[in-house]
Amino acid sequence: MGCQYFSIFEDHASIRIEEIGRIPELLRSLAGVPGEIWIIAEDRLSKALTSRQLNQLIHVQVVNSLVALARIAATYEHFAMVRKVGAALEESVARDAAAHVFCCSNAQRLLLQPSAADRVVEIFLEKKNDSAWIKLVTGILRWTDASTLERIFLRLDQEPLATNRLALLRLLGRVGPVGLSAARRRLQHPEWYVVRNACKLLGELKDPELLDQLLPVFAHKEERVQMAALQAVAESRLPGRQMVIAKALPLLSPMLLENALRELMFRPDLEILSALEEYLNAPTPAGPWAMVRVVGVVAAIPQAPAAEALARISLKETLHESVRKAAQEALAERSFRNGAAGGRPPNDDHLRLNRTLDNG
């Protein structure tokens, strides 16, 4: 009887709104006997979703019926059906996003009720090495709303097993923009490991605001949080990441300072020069060795202002002798490379450098 009801979709032009409106209740009443009716319902409703013969009011009723089908299927752990419904709604949105923002697009956030999300996580952890299951779950979670996804974040926060935490990090790292809000909020969390996980997730989610979000995190007292932030920034390849790393230098532990300087040396850029000089002009607990390494980064910057900075550093009497000496040697090497030793006329670099030395 239930399957026969969907014969109303044989002629879209003759469908009445009250006929569509009965479908959610029909599906709920037959939920205990899943099988062919779900397959038929999904097929007929998905085809009706893109029919041009249905007016907007009936279209919305079709969307509501698909949501009811997905939520019933999720209750019985038939997540493949949830995925098919979501894909149908996604295809409808792709056809005309503006026209379907209040129906199909919003409906995607309703496919998975919060209690079903908990079960998804349980099954996911049991099948965390099953690539097909991971792909299925990731596809579903991309459509969940923030409150439902929050439950998975909470599970990550509380998960005691390292293997499960890594699996959940991989899963949440694939959900896309819907996960950004929850991850950003956790940067303020009192537990250091929650903040560390948030740094990793924002990197995995390719947060477009990653640099602004993570710059304050470098002040965190836990080195493992700083390490996660540094790795996320360095791997982001976002414009301006070198400046963020340079600004973070005074906050980093000695081990991480070495990693940060290595990253800056890999791509020395004129924009970081002011931050490097600021580091050298301020008291730092890292000591002269770190300042010498910073001088090396300054020397690697090819533009003329870097030579002026080296001259200032070499004349600054408050700096340790080894730091001034490193600046002097870098200046000499720079002059040699620029051909001053070969007798060629002085270039702009030499002229500006001489002015800096004269003023010093």
Name a few traits of the molecule.
360 residues, mainly alpha, single chain, 3 domains, elongated, Leucine-rich Repeat Variant, 22 helices, 68% helix
Task: Report on the architecture of this protein.
By secondary structure, the chain is mainly α. It has 22 helices and no strands. It has helices spanning 2-5, 17-21, 23-29, 36-49, 56-75, 79-95, 101-108, 114-126, 131-141, 146-158, 162-172, 180-185, 192-204, 210-214, 223-236, 241-248, 254-266, 273-281, 288-300, 304-315, 321-337, 348-359.
SSE layout and pairings?
Blueprint: H1 2-5, H2 17-21, H3 23-29, H4 36-49, H5 56-75, H6 79-95, H7 101-108, H8 114-126, H9 131-141, H10 146-158, H11 162-172, H12 180-185, H13 192-204, H14 210-214, H15 223-236, H16 241-248, H17 254-266, H18 273-281, H19 288-300, H20 304-315, H21 321-337, H22 348-359
At the fourth level of CATH, the homologous superfamily of the largest domain is Leucine-rich Repeat Variant
Which shape, going by the Cα principal axes? elongated
Topology pattern, helix = H, strand = E:
HHHHHHHHHHHHHHHHHHHHHH
What number of structural domains do the residues give? 3
| Individual helix count | 22
- Estimate the strand proportion: under 5%
Question: Compute the gyration radius: what is it?
Answer: 30 Å
In the predicted model, the low-confidence regions spanning at least 5 consecutive residues are 343-348, 350-354
Q: What can be said about the biggest beta sheet?
A: none
Overall strand count: 0
Mean pLDDT: 88
The CATH class designation of the largest domain is Mainly Alpha
